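Objective 1b: paired records.
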Amino acid sequence: MNPIISDSQRKYTLFMLVLVFTSSHIDRQIMGILGQPIKESLMISDTQLGLLTGIMFAVFYATLGMPMAMWADRHNRRNLISFSVFLWSLMTALCGAATNFVQLLLLRIGVGVGEAGSNPPSHSIIADLYPPERRATAMAIFGTGINWGILFGFLLGGWINEWFGWRTAFVVVGLPGIFLAILVRYTVKEPPRGYSEQRQEAVKPPAFSTVVKFMWHNPVLRHIVIAGALISFTGYASVIWIPIYLVRIHEMGTGEAGSYLALLIGVGGALGIYLGGRLADFYLRVTVNNGCLGSSCWPISLPLHCCISPLWLRRRWRRLPPMSSRQCLAQFMSRLLLPSFKIRRRSKCAQLLQPSIYLSSTSSG
């Protein structure tokens, strides 16, 4: 018989997973605000900068996510998360010691390898802790780690770079993750698999080929993965290159650019993710098909984002004009509505997949 998990233990586990996800995105997104100083210091091209922040990181993050998820299917998920946090935090801190492009590239690959082992087991633990009617809200709270990571990464990275340099910024944001890894290892408890569904029998992990076939032949899951990949393609590109654009073209300081973007993307996005999760749980209670939540927010958020951004980013003596209250509100609202699909995607996957398949499948998107 499975042990009873108290509500306080459930909340503490979710809180620690949010901290882990926040740490992950601090170390991942800080390259955006530090991109221009790194380019000037190491004298690298934009192509090399793109390799540091994009394809080389993504290749190892995406491909290693699948075998790590399969390992976590068969072993302790908490321990994998703890090791992953330790690895990416150490690699991030060591980025401050890089003296050339190759060294920094290898260290950023190390960050990607570490982060590949965190997200799938975190999703799996949350799915085991929270029943379907509460799962979307839990996933939403977990998902706010993306925006808290952008907020703290841009704020800390931007201002520390101006005061002490980009190398110090990497060390400052990387070292706390090592202590977080220790805290996860010794304070977070591994929940029984299938706990939220009250499963008593042991859940046998399937073969990887079984997971792939199951997802490919399920049109809902197949389209969710494809849509998630397209959203990530544009979302991560904008988060990385917008701060570089502001610093290089509009001659903003990294602290100033980081402050603007931290408030707009960090606070607006975090609210959008949380409210999206609450609405998803509400729709689940009142209707079977609640996929309309994510799709209904896109037609509203995209015009706001696309129409207001050119106004905000227009040149005036190579400096940004002061943002009007309407421009701030529109940009804030676009970030508020845009993330809702991500939370609907995660909760929908948890509903459609068995506990034995869920962890491996989440490594794909």
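Objective 1b, second protein:
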Amino acid sequence: MIKLRHPEKTTLSIGDGANDVAMIMKADVGVGISGKEGMQAAQASDFAIGQFRFLKPLLFLHGRECYRRNADLVCYTFYKNMLYIVAQWWFGAFNHFSGQNLYEAMIYQSFNIVFCGIPIMWFALFDWQHQKDDFLKKQNSSWYSIGIRNERFDTKTFIKWVACGITEGLVIIFICFVSVEGIHAVNQSGRMWDFWSGGCNVYWVCIFVANITCLRMLYTWTGWGEAIIALCSFAYFPMIAMENRWSFTPEVYRSLSQSMASLRAWMGVAFVFTVICLYAAAGDRIRYLLEKPEEKKSTEKKVV
């Protein structure tokens, strides 16, 4: 009846007997309680609990945080892929969309697998916005409303994430790559700065920007998440150093000294990080000032 009158609403059904199975299966989320009336409700449910007292932590703690983390995970996944794909697309505008890649093939395929996949997985599994006991306090019941109002995963929020990835990708490609095209010889061999060296610079800047964004998303600071983000970010340099010695990767063979020798390129990298960090800090500050007083407490960082 509720789904017919309000089809846009998300429904939750809770039951502990065989007569509740149809209700549990019809709802968007079904919770079954196993007990004296049998296991039928628990077997038909999305989540099964042993006692009614477990319902409050399931909803206000695990349910709320599961919604927040998964919503941020999906939006961030689109953001980080837009970040380095937009740079590749704009590079196509300079080669008449001939199909030429900006990134060397091996590191190109490693973006999500090695460099940017594990940090967001850590976030989605282990991040908590507050101490667990605080979620169950009556005065903090308003925290649960983010799921009811769908604050973290609506069309507006999704567009913001995608637009952020596109904007930062444009900044990276035009400053890190276009600004150093055609500069003078950068090493003793007389070799000019080529697009492979520029592509490597664009690529590792995209890695660091994406992982810094993931770091800013963290609320739980234990040292492990930060270490994983740092390890994945700096893993690029030993990988490109190995490829620099392999003759079967001719795109970047013996090019490390070239890509690391240009002061102009390093200045471009520093400028990109400065612009993006200032832009992110300004955005955070504006959002904080526009929040309601009760919402500000729920967005404060915590240290564990």
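The chain is about 60% helix and 5% strand. The chain has two domains: 2-49, 56-303.
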